[in-house]
Amino acid sequence: MASTMKLMLLSLLAFLSTQAVLSAVTPLQFQHPLDPLTKDEITTVQTIVRAKYPTSKNSLTFHYIGLDDPDKTTLLTWEHSKLGAITIPRKSFVIAIINTQTHEIVIDLRLKLILSDKIHTGHGFPTLSVEEQSAAILLPLSYEPFKDS
């Protein structure tokens, strides 16, 4: 009976201490530097890029929006500091085709500012957008030699 009581008491103590930790560190207060972008961050990125390149004057398609990883030394410094002692600026890396040119854009999400906007001049093409993939899937079905084969 005494051992059951001790077990119940320890379980209760563990539960309460877990609740205290969880209430002290809420998802809004803590974010790992390598967490993927949130829906709000992606929306912010799109808003910033569209403000610079309004769709009324430009042809704009997003091909990639993701986290621009912090450098390793900064990440290790954060990892070895106490939780929340230092913050690492969240940045987004964007690949967009704007007026037939492939842009590589880096955005500071805290400052809501474009840090760099480079036009890619090398080889290759970014991944297809959803619309382009859909068109590519349907294209052979409208091509008579393909249908005849």
Structural notes for this entry:
The chain has 149 residues and is α+β, with helices and mostly antiparallel strands. The chain is built from five helices and four strands, in the order ααβαβββαα. InterPro entries: Cu_amine_oxidase (IPR000269), Cu_amine_oxidase_N-reg (IPR016182), Cu_amine_oxidase_N2 (IPR015800). Keywords: Copper, Metal-binding, Oxidoreductase, Signal, TPQ. Residues 1-23 form the signal peptide. Its EC number is 1.4.3.-.
What's the layout of helices and strands?
Elements: H1 2-24, H2 39-52, E1 60-67, H3 72-80, E2 91-98, E3 101-108, E4 113-119, H4 130-138, H5 144-148
Antiparallel strand pairs: 1-2, 2-3, 3-4
Family: Belongs to the copper/topaquinone oxidase family.
Enzyme class: oxidoreductase
Keywords: Copper, Metal-binding, Oxidoreductase, Signal, TPQ
